[in-house]
TrEMBL record:
Coiled coil: none annotated. The lineage of its organism: Eukaryota, Fungi, Dikarya, Ascomycota, Pezizomycotina. Belongs to the tpcK family. It comes from Clonostachys rhizophaga. This is EthD domain-containing protein. InterPro entries: Dimeric_a/b-barrel, EthD_dom. PANTHER family: BLR8190 PROTEIN. One of its GO terms (molecular function) is oxidoreductase activity.
Length: 108
């Protein structure tokens, strides 16, 4: 059972350069392979098409990483693999993402 999510949101603004094909085809497979051995139990990529008001979305893409244990997530965030994954960011984006972590309190 998923206990905690790490959500990474990539901004959508006039200055953004974001290579979605590289992100999905190279970065995400690299990330999930590296984190699987560190307790990652699932993931989803979201491509946002519009905001809640129907306008331009604040974020263009999101990556939701699912963990069954808060300590495993923290160990992965503190480990050496993080530096490698962060170093890959300039290959697909010129801006830092927003990163959120939160425990699952209800789901269906």
């Amino acid at each position: 059972m998923v206990a905690i999510n790490l959500t990474i949101l990539y901004p959508n603004n006039d200055d953004i350069k974001f290579n979605f094909e590289y992100f999905v085809g190279t970065h995400v497979p690299k990330l999930t392979a590296a984190l699987k051995d560190l307790g990652l139990v699932g993931w989803e990529v979201v491509k946002y098409s519009h905001g809640a008001d129907g306008g331009v979305p604040a974020y263009q893409a999101g990556l939701i990483l699912k963990w069954d244990d808060k300590e495993k997530l923290q160990a992965a965030r503190d480990g050496p693999v993080k530096a490698e994954l962060v170093a890959d960011l300039p290959n697909f984006s010129n801006q830092k993402p927003t990163v959120l972590a939160g425990g699952i309190v209800s789901s269906s």
